[in-house]
Amino acid sequence: MNYPLVSVISINYNQARVTCELVASLRRVTYPSLEIIVVDNASPADNPDVIKEQFPEVQLIKSTENLGFAGGNNLGIAQARGEYLLFLNNDTEVEPDFLEPLVELFKTNPRAGIASPKIKYFDGEHLIQYAGSRGINPWTGRSITIGHLEADYGQHDASYPTELADGAAMLVPRRVLEAVGPMPELYFLYYEELDWCERIKNAGFTCHYVAESTVYHKESVSVGKGSVLKTYYMNRNRLLFIRRNSRGWARLTSTLVFVAAALPKLALRYASQREWPHLRALGRGLRWNMQHASGLQ
Hints:
single chain, alpha/beta
């Protein structure tokens, strides 16, 4: 059986211990041909060298500045040798046999452009986080994820083409990367993988959910749950995504609904809970979009 090289690329930021847990799980995979690339995004409060010390097989790239999710992954891409590139959050762990079904999809379907496995929450009952996507809700700018927070009774055990991949774990062939280019770096954090999915689909490729593959996600370890940084980039980039990927009346109506309804609803919630830093983050995100009203394509 042919096993083309898979380059696993993961971003580390102040979470060397968590990244080591990921690499430890990758050591147990049954797929025999992979390289592991960890990009440290200039961690200010952690020493990434421990990753290389514990796992000498890792190619550790230390960026001199925080390049964000897309920028860090693109730095990894520049060093990757694989025919396939697997973008894997550092706060994930994998099943030993997760990689074979993903690679098999691309070997048998030349139009497949990007794919994600079934993703479950790491803690507790391993509830489903991702089992495919219905795309972006045009009114809220949020991704509509299939299976989210459901217990896994096998109801999502069939693979199928889907609208969007999930940035926590996604496999892309090098030929697709060469056709569409790297991840868009203007997002910095959140929504860049969704924008990339749209570019891949616009180039004539398809997006897939691969049910036979499973990854476990600890979610927001690198950013922090409920962080102001997440509030800023998540909401700034929802509007940015709408602007870059909608046209005509759809773009106008989606923008108006997001600005006039979704954002005020969030603002009211933060104000009622006296979460002023989060409220200010919403304002900064809206102001960024107003200051960058053109030239973002």
